[in-house]
């Protein structure tokens, strides 16, 4: 049996979460069209006859001095050093700028084996593919380079083959049917956060986090009650998340309910969502410790 921990790294929106979800065939990491929505080092677990791969979905690597972004960067780099393999995802639709250079220079220094994946192959142009290949040949020579579409599940089997080549021999760390080690509250809060950030635009997605205030099982009615709060930074943002006459909050609830129901199959669900403002939470280390475990 083989068993490896694999850190997925790449610029915001490169498709890391999409790839993880495709590999693990379950929603373990939220995806959104707004960059930098992955905040935690989340694990997805893939097991087959060859062994087990445990993925860490590193937050988007971002050059910024803001406290939240600095923490994201620390989490990302630490998970690279601690893993058996690194999967470096490159968005073929964006040209390499300062950020990609900073990232690649870190990757070049680490001892962990690296596999490069040129993602979004379904929409790539020849010239874009050539540009990415030249960039990789210059900065990460001799590392395997694969082409994939995380979205369409193309080239993903080849990624698994390469990863199992690198994976050390070892016993499985998780049961074969496990796909994530995230705790229940975290999974629920991420489902709600995904629905919320997909409804709002511009600056607000990054100003949102979700806390689960209470989960209760009423046996008499076989109902799970979940009370959760969507936290924003300013009162003006509260109104936007709630929407006209509560329209947005209803959409968030209706979007989240079916996915949460899957977690509690066979039970009825009541989801109670509130929106609260907490000034400057992104610079508050108590809040950051709570959400960036
Ligand atoms: N066409 C195409 N789009 C993709 C592919 N993979 C991801 N995307 C899209 O790219 C966007 C970003 O994908 P994510 O998986 O959230 O990216 P991420 O790297 O996890 O982003 P962060 O959380 O910001 O670090 C989403 O709109 C995806 O649907 C792909 O293979 N092809």
Automatic annotation (TrEMBL):
Start and end residues of each KH type-2 domain: 188-279
Molecular function in Gene Ontology: GTP binding; GTPase activity; ribosomal small subunit binding; small ribosomal subunit rRNA binding
Protein's UniProt keywords contain Cytoplasm: yes
Residues involved in GTP binding: 10-17, 57-61, 119-122
Keyword entries, A-Z: Cell inner membrane, Cell membrane, Cytoplasm, GTP-binding, Membrane, Nucleotide-binding, Ribosome biogenesis, RNA-binding, rRNA-binding
Location(s) in or outside the cell: Cytoplasm; Cell inner membrane
Segments for region (G2): 36-40
A Pfam family of this chain: KH_2
Gene Ontology BP terms: ribosomal small subunit assembly
Descriptive protein name: GTPase Era
Origin species: Sphaerochaeta globosa (strain ATCC BAA-1886 / DSM 22777 / Buddy)
């Amino acid at each position: 049996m083989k068993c490896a921990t694999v850190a997925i790294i790449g610029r915001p929106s490169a498709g890391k979460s999409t790839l993880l979800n495709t590999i693990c065939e379950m929603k373990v990491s939220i995806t959104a069209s707004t960059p930098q929505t992955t905040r935690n080092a989340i694990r997805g677990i893939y097991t087959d006859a060859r062994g087990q791969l445990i993925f860490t979905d590193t937050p988007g690597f971002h050059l910024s001095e803001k406290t939240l972004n600095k923490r994201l960067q620390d989490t990302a780099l630490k998970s690279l050093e601690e893993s058996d393999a690194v999967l470096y995802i490159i968005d073929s639709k964006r040209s390499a700028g300062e950020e990609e250079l900073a990232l690649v220079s870190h990757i070049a220094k680490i001892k962990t084996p690296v596999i490069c994946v040129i993602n979004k192959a379904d929409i790539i142009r020849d010239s874009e593919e050539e540009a990415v290949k030249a960039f990789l040949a210059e900065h990460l020579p001799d590392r395997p380079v694969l082409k994939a579409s995380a979205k369409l599940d193309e080239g993903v089997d080849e990624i698994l083959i390469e990863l199992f080549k690198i994976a050390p021999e070892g016993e499985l760390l998780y049961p074969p049917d496990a796909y994530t080690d995230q705790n229940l509250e975290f999974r629920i809060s991420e489902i709600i956060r995904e629905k919320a950030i997909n409804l709002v635009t511009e600056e607000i997605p990054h100003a949102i986090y979700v806390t689960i205030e209470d989960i209760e099982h009423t046996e008499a009615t076989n109902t799970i009650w979940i009370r959760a709060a969507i936290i924003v930074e300013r009162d003006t943002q509260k109104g936007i998340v709630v929407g006209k006459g509560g329209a947005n909050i209803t959409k968030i609830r209706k979007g989240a309910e079916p996915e949460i129901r899957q977690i509690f199959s066979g039970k009825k669900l009541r989801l109670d969502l509130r929106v609260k403002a907490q000034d400057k939470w992104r610079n508050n280390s108590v809040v950051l410790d709570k959400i960036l475990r």
